[in-house]
Design goal:
two-stranded antiparallel sheet; 6 helices; DNA Binding (I), subunit A; single chain; 2 domains; mainly alpha; globular
Length: 177
């Protein structure tokens, strides 16, 4: 039986903790989940839930965005003209702030359109960018925290969020080799 979060805080914390486990698994050759991955997930989830741990600052994501400003944040394409894309679509109340903007190629920007990032990567059968997923989850958490929504039951969550709660992964599948 898999974990089923009850409220927005649990969902975002669980996905964030699983993303950390996924990042560790990707560093294995070949990529695979280990006991260390699951221990990390457990430690991070419990720490976040208890308020004893915080997410890494968005500063790291911003620094990475600037370091890789010559490649598409979504597909990794290099030496192609880049555009700015709203991670949370502007039409869905996504802001123009730097933490919601990413550099991406025109093909990815057009393909994603107004879709939620996690919804889009699944439909487009694209690998999840760990840095974009981390940015997304931090932005979603901050958005909900600022509006007092973190303890809202998932079945009572507002329908007009700038991100799609049902698209947020509870687990991250490793790339097929």
């Amino acid at each position: 039986m898999s974990f089923q979060p009850k409220n927005i805080r649990e969902l975002l914390n669980w996905s964030y903790a699983n993303l950390a486990a996924y990042q560790i698994a990707l560093k294995q050759t070949p990529p695979h989940y280990t006991k260390a991955c699951w221990m990390t997930r457990s430690r991070i989830y419990k720490g976040l839930q208890a308020g004893e741990m915080k997410r890494a600052s968005i500063y790291r994501n911003e620094r990475e965005k600037l370091t890789h400003k010559d490649e598409c944040a979504y597909c990794g394409g290099k030496n192609v003209p880049l555009t700015l894309d709203h991670l949370f679509a502007k039409s869905k109340k996504g802001s123009d702030s730097g933490d919601n903007l990413v550099y991406c190629c025109q093909a990815c920007n057009s393909s994603k359109g107004k879709k939620d990032y996690f919804e889009w990567v699944e439909v487009a059968d694209m690998p999840i960018s760990t840095s974009i997923a981390e940015r997304y989850l931090k932005n979603a958490y901050n958005y909900c925290e600022q509006r007092g929504l973190l303890d809202t039951d998932l079945d009572k969550a507002p329908a007009d969020l700038p991100f799609l709660l049902t698209a947020i992964p509870l687990q991250y599948s490793l790339p097929r080799l």
